[in-house]
Amino acid sequence: QLSGQGVTAGDRVLVATPNLPATVTASLAIQSLGACAVEVNREWGASALTAIAVQIEARHAVIDARDAIFWGQVGAVVGLAHLWIVHPRRPGDRLWSALGAIPATWLRDDGTLEDLPSGHGTPVRRLDAPALIVYTSGSTGTPRGVIQTHANIAANTKSICEYLRLTAADRAMAILPLCYCYGKSLLQTHIKVGGSIFFDHRFMYPRLVLETIGEQQCTGFAGVPLTFELIRRQVDPRAISMPSLRYLTQAGGAMTLETARWVRAAFAPAHLFVMYGQTEATARLSYLPPEHAQDKEGSIGRPIPGVELRVVDEGGWPLPANQEGYLVARGANVTPGYFRAPKATAEILREGWLWTGDLGRKDDDGFFFLTGRARDMLKIGGHRVSAAEIEGRLTGHPDVLEAAVVGEAEPVDGEAAVAFVVKRADSMLSENDLRHYCRQHLPPFMVPKTVRFIEALPRTRVGKVAKSELRARVS
After folding, report:
1. Residue 17: CB partners within 8 Å, gap ≥ 6?
2. Higher per-residue pLDDT: 389 or 322
3. Out of 59, 319, 333, 456, which residue is the most buried by the measure of CB atoms under 10 Å away?
4. CA-to-CA separations, 44 to 20, 76, 153, 179, 339, in angstroms, rounded
5. Cβ neighbours of residue 69 under 8 Å, at least 6 residues apart?
6. Helix (H, G, I), strand (E, B) or coil at 22
7. Sign of CA dihedral 358, 361, 367, 369
8. Measured at the alpha carbon of residue 276, what is the angle toward residues 361 and 13, in degrees to the nearest 5?
9. Residue 52: which H helix or E strand, with range?
C-alpha cells in the first residue's frame, strides 16, 4: 500500500497515531521501503506539527481518525499527497469529507489494510541510511529532529537486550509513547528477541495497569520518574499479584533516592535498572546494575556495551576520577546529527564524541554520577524541554519585554519551569494571564508552574542573563 501510493526510499513519512498495532506496522513498513518514519505526538499542537511537516517535506502521513479534521487542514497547507486513516471500522462520509481533496486509505487498528495488495519491503541496503527522525521537543515553531540510522538502532537494541538479558519469553508492559526514544527502544528490543509487547493506555489508573501486568504475565515494566511516583501515591504493588515480573527500567530523568528505594522494596523480587541516555544516543548510554543499587546509589552506572563515556574539560581532554567535567560519549548508537541543522549538529558532535550537555564525574570504580547540566535543558515529567523554547513563547506576548526560564526541583515531575518576566511598564498583565496565554500555545508540561515579574533580568559582565542568580532565587 505504501509503495503503491508513491512512498519510496529516502521519503520521510509522518506517523501521528497513539500506541496501536497499526502504529508499529506502519513504522516498520515505512522503514522496510528504505523510507524514514517520523513519529509525532498530536499533543504537540498545530504550529509545531505543521513546522515539522514542512521541515521534513512530508508527502504522506499515517493519522488517527479522531484527528482527521486537523490533518486535513495541515495537509492542505503543507501539500500532503496521501493519508492513511487508522480506525477500527471504516470511517463514515463525514470523516472523508473533512480531508478535503487529500486522497486517503483506511488502515485498521489491528495493523491490517483493507484490500491489501501483494508486495513486500526490501532488505535495508545501507545501514547508515536514516530509519527514524525523532523530535526531542515538538512544542515550538523550530523543533529539532534527531536522525537515527538503521545502524544506530541495531547497536542500541543489541546492547539493551544484552544487559537486560531479554529473550523470546519476555513480555513488556508498554505505557510509554512510541514517538519518544524510550518507548521505541522498548519495542525494538522485544522485536529483536521475538518477545511481546502489551500496550496499555490506562495509566491514569495505575492499579489497573499493575493488575494487567499480572494477568498478561508481563516480565518487564518501563517508566519515567513520574510513572513510579504516581504508583507510589496511588497503589501498593505488594497487594497485587505480579509473579511474572522480572525487571523494571527507569529513565527519562533522575528519580529521587527515596522513590528509587521504595520501588526496589515494593516490586521485589523484580530488579530495578536505573538508566541514562538521550535521543541523540538512540536512547541509552549507561545503566546501573541492580546489584549496585545500594553501594552506588545515585549513580547512572557504567556505559552500556559498545559505548564509551568520558568526563572531559572544556577542551575535550579527559579528567581524572572524582573531578567534575563535561560528560561525552561515543559509540555506534550515536546519531549522525540533527535533520537539516548543521550548526546544532556541530555543537553536539565534536571529533567523534557526543557532548551530552550534562556535567558529571566518574568515581574510582568507573561509575558515573551526574552533577548538573551544561546545556539549559529541563526534564519535566520525562520530557526534555529547552528553556529557550518556553522563553521564546513568553516573549511572543505583546506585553512581555524579556523572559528567562529556569528549573525548580519538583517531587513528581522531576522539575518544573519557573519564568522570570520583565513586562512593559504600563502593562496590567498578571501571572494568570500569562499562564493562560502559554496554555494556548504550549503543551501542558511546558507551561511555567510559576511566573515571577521582575524589573530587570540579572546579567553577567558580558551581558548574558545570569541564570545562576535566578536559580539561586528559586532555591
Report:
1. 23, 26, 62, 63, 64, 86
2. 322
3. 333
4. 19, 19, 25, 11, 19
5. 98
6. helix
7. negative
8. 135
9. helix 46-55
- Residue 444, helix vs strand vs coil: helix
Q: Which secondary-structure segment (H or E) carries 37?
A: strand 36-39
Q: How far apart are the first and last CA of the chain?
A: 56
A 10 A CB-CB count for 259 gives: 17
pTM (two decimals): 0.81
pLDDT score recorded for residue 99: 83
Strands (E) located in 332-367: 349-350, 353-362
Domains of the chain: 3-143 (3.40.50.980), 149-373 (3.40.50.12780), 379-474 (3.30.300.30)
Report the C-alpha gap between 390 and 403 in whole angstroms.
9
Query: Please, which residues have CB within 8 angstroms of residue 104's CB and are 6 or more apart in sequence?
Result: 82, 83, 84, 85, 96
Judging by DSSP bridges, how do beta strands 325-331 and 307-312 pair with one another?
A: antiparallel
Q: Are strands 12-16 and 171-174 parallel, antiparallel or unpaired?
A: unpaired
Range from 105-119, 268-282, 307-321 carrying the lowest mean pLDDT = 105-119
> pLDDT digits over 189-204, tens only?
999 999 999 999 888 8
Q: For residue range 18-39, what is the model confidence (pLDDT) as tens digits?
A: 998 889 999 999 999 999 999 9
> What number is the average pLDDT over the span 359-372?
92
Percent of all residues in the chain with a pLDDT value above 70, rounded to a whole number: 94
* pLDDT greater than 70 at residue 460: no
Rg (CA), the chain: 23
Does the pLDDT at position 454 exceed 70?
yes
Q: What are phi and psi of 257, to 5 degrees?
A: -60, -35
In the chain, what is the greatest distance between 2 CA atoms, to the nearest angstrom? 68
Say how far residue 116 (Cα) sits from the centre of its chain. Answer: 32
β-strand pairing of 302-303 with 286-288? antiparallel
Count of H helices and E strands in the chain? 13, 24
**Separation between Cα atoms, residue 141 and residue 65, nearest integer Å:** 25
Beta bridge partners of 39: 15
